[in-house]
Structure formats: structure tokens, C-alpha cells
Write a structure and sequence with these properties.
Number of strands: 0
Oligomer: single chain
Distance between the termini: 28 Å
Order of helices and strands: HHHH
Structural class: mainly alpha
Strand content: under 5%
Number of domains: 1
Shape: flat
Amino acid sequence: MKSQQTIQRPSGAFIASSWAAMLVGAAVYLIGLWNAQMQLNEKGYYFVILMYGLFSAISLQKSVRDKLEDIPVTGLYFILCWLSLVLAIGLLAVGLWNATLADSEKGFYAMAFLLSLFGAIAVQKNVRDQQVALKQDPLTQPLQP
């Protein structure tokens, strides 16, 4: 096992900005989708891509962190995490490339999607850092008899 690293608890500002990035990115994407002049099946496609992207980004971040902390992660799962994230981004790119949207709308969806992915990764990192920092804090440990 690797030597124990000290993980510093993330600042309140970073935690807040991470949540804001994820929520603003996803909310703006979804509001744009709600107001879009698309068929319902197209809206469903873009909604599922957002959910798939968020899940795959969080799963990949967790897998990377697990490997760094010597928590077993199978190679197959690790590869599937990377493949899922690349696939989600690729499916969004293909969908936007073929969409009958203005270039500004395509850019809007791409940037909101990427902002929400970044935010989700940062939120997952913060949650993990807070858990590790809590375990390392001697004030939170139970008293030994």
C-alpha cells in the first residue's frame, strides 16, 4: 500500500463553485433543451446524452481516485469508464454536427454540457477529499479506551 497522503479539505469557495458549475451547466443545458424547437425524440436524445455524460464522468473520476488510493478497480471497468466518457462526448458531437441548429446554439449546448461534466467531476473530487480529510482529522476520531 502506498504511503498515506494528507488530503487537504477543499475550501468552501471551491465546493460552492464546483456545485455551481455542475448545476448551472446542467440547468442551462436543460432549459435550452426545453425551449428548443426540436421533436421530442431529439430532446430525449440530448437529455440522455447529458445524463450518460454526467454518470460516466463521475464514474471515471471515482475509478481514477480509487486507483490512486490502491483501491482495486478492474481493468475492464476502468476502460469502460473511459470509453463511456468518450462515447458521451462523441455522441453529443455527432448529434450537434448533424442537427439543424444555428452554430451559436450548437456551441451553447456543447459548452453547457462540458461545464456540467467539469462540475460533476469537481463535486465528486470534493466529496472524496472531504471524506478523506474527515478520516484524518484527529478531532473526529472516536476516543480509544
